[in-house]
Amino acid sequence: MYQFLYDLIGNEILAGLLVAVVPLTIILVFALFGIWLERKVSAHMQDRLGPMRTGWHGWLQTVADLMKMLQKEDIIATDADKTLYNIAPVLVFTGSFAAYAVIPFSSKLLGSEVEIGLFYVIAISSLVVAGILMAGWSANNKYSLLGAMRAAAQIISYEIPTALIILSMVMLTGTLSLEKISQMQTSSFWNWNIFGGAVFGLSKFLLIPFMIAGTLIIFTSTLAEVNRVPFDIPEAESELVAGYFTEYCGMKWGMFMLAEYGNMFAVSAIIAILFLGGYQSPIGYLGNSIGAQWLIPFEQGFWFIAKGLALVFVQMWLRWTLPRLRVDQLMTVCWKYLIPFAFINLIIIGIISLI
Amino acid sequence: MKQYLKNTFDGIFTVLVGMKVTFKHLFTPAVTIQYPDVKVKLPDRVRNRLYVNMDDCIGCDQCSRACPVSCIEIETVKSIPSEDLGITSNGKKKALWVTKFNIDIAKCCYCQLCVFPCPTECIYMTDVYEFAEYERSNFLYKFATLTDEEAVQKKINYEKFQAEKAAAAAKPKPETPAQTENKTE
Prior knowledge:
The complex is a heterodimer of chains A (355) and B (185).
Chain A: H1 2-9, H2 12-45, H3 61-71, H4 82-98, H5 117-125, H6 127-138, H7 142-173, H8 178-184, H9 202-225, H10 237-240, H11 250-275, H12 286-290, H13 295-319, H14 327-354
Helix pairs in contact in A: 1-2, 2-11, 2-13, 4-6, 4-11, 6-7, 7-9, 7-14, 9-11, 9-14, 11-13
Chain B: H1 2-26, E1 50-52, H2 62-66, E2 72-78, E3 96-104, E4 123-125, E5 140-142, H3 148-170, H4 177-184
Antiparallel strand pairs in B: 1-4, 2-3, 3-5
């Protein structure tokens, strides 16, 4: 993408900016659309209608809310640590947005083709924890602090099963590059990693149950990492008002919201790349059959966003199905269930990939 | 160990059961309605805002007396013989000018006790239930059809008529003032 734009424009800074603008646009549009979708999904699951007044079925509701949010006064509590308080939302948003740098939306739309993409994603998403802790500490509010502490404990705990599953996928594919992992699962949904990968043989069929288990584990643990229900104790409305961003208002609050939805799509994208074939089409490309090669990258973009949105929908679906977990239950699920299963999964996938 | 595996299985299974339930509800038609656009049909004998059809009102003051919270205020002036007030829809002859017919709907307790005594059925409950106001004074509904000037005029007319009548009665028999008094009443 960068190289393509650089050849086209011939200016490093401009090309770099354009490369950055595309995922930013996607994440902003997704956040607007995602919040609306969340409200509609929740409404229909509770036999309600949700927003209906602004635009067709209320699709402009989030835009209206954004306008309201931009006009709000920026209030900072007297006893808050102003420097940290102001940096925190930016840091959280940066953490979630920076992960998009290596996510391949299609074979042509790719921020950076780094070889250590997966490693980078895990590393950069840890920035969110620092931002959340900062927000909770600097606000000088007991609810914020409790929320931040819970968030830190939860995110750090759930990073272990996530990392273990990613490790098993790295063992299987032999690469850390998200682009290469996507390319391996080409041509048909049967070649996706959830169905044992592209290499046909005994090991493929042996891998299938463990791959499905791995998908479930990574889905659960990433759900906890983005603080979604049923793992939303850091921002538990009924206990902590809004958790670590209780004291924020206006657009700073909006940035936390944006980061949350950005994170939701980012983790869905990672799961889609690792297990569901990334940007590859499950049924072959229209561009190949009608002989229009230029169409393929657009189709890939469509499939990638469709897979990401499908997983985001499952996240929302779970949110309106399950009640919130208690802190001890949360830790039990992670340390007593997900981590042992992830370890067993890792060992078995390692053994199978040897044969 | 057995318990551990059972817990794992139960965890996944119960989540799927819950997801099935919510997925079904995703396609259930909404039970809520778009309120200001769509309204629930009201029951037949619903009690809401009062309305007075002044064409039929004979100014008998029965509704005002029936009201338990005294929210209806009526003042009337007798008509003079030269004036014709017409008849009500059920044939009663109107004899009084209703100069004031105020209902303070903020006081109203929606008991409908004023509706039953009305001989001409001119005061009744409508199906309007959205009448919030910013000012409390706006809740004082004035139903009288006469303007203030007209009301004053009717009063003057009646007093003039009474005075004339008294004068006429007083002329032939000036020696019996007691009788005159009775007549003026």
